[in-house]
Amino acid sequence: MTAETAVTLPGGEMLTWSDRRADAGNRPLAALVARLVPPGADVLLAGPVDPAVLDALGQTHVTALLRGYPDAAALAGRVDRVVAAGAAGLPTDEAYNVVIAAGGLDAVESVEGPPLGWNAVLARLTAAVRPGGVLLLRLDNPLGVHRLVAASGWYVGRDDAEWTVGGVLDTGRPANLDQLRLRLDAAGLRMDTSYVAYPRPESTTVLLATDQVARHTTSGLFEAVLHTACTSGYADRFVVADPARLAVDALYAGRAAELAPGWLVIAHRAASSGDDLNATDRAALPLAVLANDSSDGRIVEVVDGPQGWHWHRSGSIVPRSVRTPYASREITHLDPAAPEGPVPDGRLLHSLLLDGCLRRDTALLRRLLRGYADWLTGQADADRLTGAVALAGADNLVVSGDRFAVLDPSRRADDPLPVDVVLARALCRFATELLTGGYAHPWTATLDVAGLTVVLGGVAGRDFDRAVVDAALDLEAAVRRERDTGRRRGLDTGRRGDRDAEGRSGPDGDLRALTPTDPPPGRHSYQQLRDAWLRQRDENTRLAAALTWTEELLTSRERALRRAEAKLDLLSGTVSYKLARLASTPARMARRGARAAKRRARAAISRKDGNHE
Amino acid sequence: MHHANHFYGHAHVLARYAGLSDGHPPRINGYVQHGWNIGDGLAPGHPYAEGTPSLLWSEQTRRRAWSLGRRNVTVIGAPFTYLLAMRPEPQSPPQRAGTIWYPFHGWEGQHVEGDHDRLIAQIRDTEPGPVTVCLYWHEHRMRRVRRRYENAGFRVICHGYRGHWWSDTDPDFLDRQLTELRRHARVASNRLTSAVFYGIAAGCAPAVYGNPMVLAGEDPTFGGTARIRRQWPELHGEQVHLPTAVEIARAELGVDHRYPPAALRELLGWAATQEETT
Question: What is the ipTM of this complex?
Answer without folding.
Answer: 0.90
